[in-house]
Write a structure and sequence with these properties.
mainly beta; Pirin; single chain; 7-stranded antiparallel β-sheet; 2 helices
């Protein structure tokens, strides 16, 4: 079995932005999507109402994990929902989505939002949303804690998220010091984000604490055979882990759009200006 180690690691740097976007940091920073493929960026945000009002997207998927506060989602197709701590919302922007993601009332909302790329042949799919409430995510217990599964198949458990590009998304919770062996396919590119505590990753025992991020090694010609990532907690800890098969396609980003060429980005802006994303969010 291929043994995974830390490929690269860093800590999130935060910017104090004031009101209403109070604080923001890049878990996965921009312009490194080749390293993160099929993932693009991941933001760690604290914000008040008025930060992410009506805005468009095209060509990718978002996975928004609510850490604290209440997140109100509204879209221009009549969709509306409120998510709370531990809930996750999946969105396929596809050919075009227009929505708002706002704090409820006077809440200070804290979220992790991951952008997951779409392959070229799926960028024109119809937009959709799926809420995965914390109670719906199955939990696989182990000796020193538990593994909550939001997406994919792992530890004999299947998460409820139905992303167009299949991924694994889990939250690993250690209630005390201990070890967990994370088993995923060889051909998955993976990264992790330490939410709390202190962990040692891989047999090389790279140590990370809160807000630490690590990309994980994988074989260039990996198959669907199993590979192992050993995580040792030195104290009560929480770790988010994400993995997926790289798309290996050209990626061009432009504001809220992710496409395969500059021409497609220009077309997305033109379509938005010409009303092809539908009416504003009410």
């Amino acid at each position: 079995m291929f043994q995974r180690e830390v490929k690269d690691s860093w800590y999130v740097n935060y910017n104090q932005l004031g009101y209403p976007h109070v604080q923001q940091g890049w878990v996965l920073p921009p312009d490194r999507h080749k390293d993160f493929d099929p993932f693009i960026v991941m933001a760690d945000d604290w914000f008040k109402r008025g930060t992410f009002s009506d805005h468009p997207h095209r060509g990718f998927q978002t996975i928004t994990y609510v850490v604290d506060g209440r997140l109100e989602h509204t879209d221009n197709h009549g969709g509306h929902s409120i998510l709370e701590a531990g809930d996750v919302q999946y969105m396929n922007a596809g050919s075009g989505a227009r929505h708002a993601e706002e704090a409820v009332d006077d809440d200070l909302i804290h979220t992790h939002q991951l952008w997951l790329n779409l392959p070229k042949h799926l960028k024109n799919t119809t937009g959709s949303y799926q809420n995965v409430f914390v109670e719906e995510a199955p939990v696989a217990p182990f000796e020193h804690g538990s593994l909550k599964v939001y997406a994919g198949q792992i530890a004999g458990t299947t998460g409820p998220m139905k992303s167009l590009v299949p991924i694994i998304m889990t939250e690993l919770s250690f209630k005390e010091p201990g070890v967990y062996s994370y088993i995923i396919p060889e051909n998955h590119n993976a990264f992790l984000f330490v939410r709390s505590g202190e962990v040692e990753i891989g047999h090389d025992r790279t140590t990370l604490t809160k807000t630490g991020v690590a990309t994980i090694t994988y074989p260039a010609n990996g198959t669907e055979a199993e590979s192992e990532l050993v995580i040792k907690a030195n104290e009560r800890s929480k770790v988010l882990l994400y993995s997926g098969v790289p798309l290996k396609e050209n990626v061009v980003t432009g504001g809220p759009f992710v496409m395969n060429s500059e021409e497609e980005i220009r077309q997305a802006f033109s379509d938005f200006r010409n009303g092809k994303f539908g009416p504003p969010v009410k």
